[in-house]
Every structure is written in C-alpha cells, then in structure tokens.
TrEMBL record:
InterPro entries: HAD-like_sf, HAD-SF_hydro_IA, HAD_sf. It comes from Rhizobium phaseoli. The keyword Metal-binding does not apply. Gene3D superfamilies: HAD superfamily/HAD-like (3.40.50.1000). Keywords: Hydrolase. The keyword Glycoprotein does not apply. GO terms for molecular function: hydrolase activity. This is HAD-IA family hydrolase. It comes from the Bacteria.
Length: 202
C-alpha cells in the first residue's frame, strides 16, 4: 500500500460538532421541502461541478424560505457538518508518518471541499483531496476511481480505500483498489489488516 484514500462524511466526519446528529436533523423539519426541491433536483449537477452551489440554493430558498439567504444556510451547513473522528485522525497521522500518502476521496462540491481543507484544517493532515466536483464524476462511478488513481500517481493495487457505503466499496474493488467498508467505532489498523500480505507491513 502506497496510498490510503479516506472518505469524509460517514467516516472522518459525523454530523454536528455538538452532538453528532445529522446536519439537517431540525432544519429539514422546518424546511420540509429542502430535500425535495434542492437535493433531489439540483444536487446532482452541483456535486459533479456542473453548477455552482449558491445560485441553485438561493433559487430554492426564495421559494420555500424567502427569509433565509443561501449564504446563511451554507454557513450553517458547513459549521454543523464537521464533527471529526479524532481517534481516526490520530491513527491516520501514524500511517502518514510511515511514508504512506493520504488522500481524501469524497463526493463534495467545490466550496465545501475548500472549507474542509482550509477551515476544518484537513489540509494539514492529508496530501490532497480527490472530490467529485473537481473530477466531474462521483462515487461509485468508475471514472471517479480511474481519475483518482491517475492523480495519485500509483497503480490501482497500490491504493487502499475506506468508505462507509457498500456501493462505493464494490466499485473501488472492481477498479482494483483494496477497499474496506468502514463502520462506526472501527479501528483503522484492524480495517487495513485485511489488505496486508505475509512479510509486508501495513
């Protein structure tokens, strides 16, 4: 293993900083149409970089919550969807110190990807971020894994990958990555041990 790819939401980040509940636990109750009007209609183009985040969100909010600006909701969103798994982050630091490159491999739009790296500070812990809006494809598309491999500069079999979604794990394996599904409370070394070979250290 030369490179370890790590998913963000559901692996490294779990909901709100205060209690770990999903970001829209109460917002969806108050803005019941947000899922239907925004995520089910606009999000598909935003997450692969075809459309920017704010204009589409502003248009939807003007319809379902005119008192709320897109900028305010984006700030709320990002601030309340950043609870880091500090134990995992510590384990990842040890992996990186051993000489293995770390990349985030995630479905994100441009603004949150930048926020994660700069404001949350993940740029100090990872060698880079491979994300759907920049690649033009989202997991589990084979193109996501092809482009991710190309940008990592290694062979598919030299990449390990952890993600919480079974469909992403299967797609990664089909492309030749060593992939394992992450579950809450898991330990990184135990998860990666599935990729080790006799005589070769993880």
């Amino acid at each position: 293993m030369k490179v370890l790819m790590v998913d963000v939401d559901g692996v490294l980040i779990h909901g709100r900083p205060t209690d770990g509940l999903p970001l829209f636990t109460y917002l969806e109750r108050d803005l019941g149409l947000l899922q239907q009007e925004f995520f089910q209609t606009c999000w598909g183009d935003i997450i692969i970089g075809r459309e920017p985040l704010e204009p589409g969100l502003a248009k939807v909010l003007a319809k379902i919550a005119p008192h709320l600006s897109a900028a305010t909701l984006i700030d709320y969103w990002f601030e309340n969807d950043r609870r880091l798994d500090l134990n995992l982050l510590e384990e990842l630091a040890a992996i990186r110190q051993s000489g293995i490159s770390l990349f985030l491999a995630t479905n994100q739009e441009h603004r949150r990807a930048r926020y994660l790296m700069e404001e949350v500070g993940l740029g100090a812990h990872f060698d880079g971020i491979l994300y759907s809006a920049a690649l033009g494809h989202r997991k589990p598309s084979p193109e996501f894994f092809r482009l991710g491999t190309e940008r990592a500069g290694v062979l598919p079999g030299e990449i390990a990958f952890i993600d919480d979604m079974a469909e992403n794990i299967e797609a990664a394996r089909q492309f030749g990555w060593n992939a394992a599904q992450w579950t809450a409370g898991a330990r990184l070394h135990e998860t990666l041990s599935a990729f080790s070979h006799p005589g070769r250290a993880i």
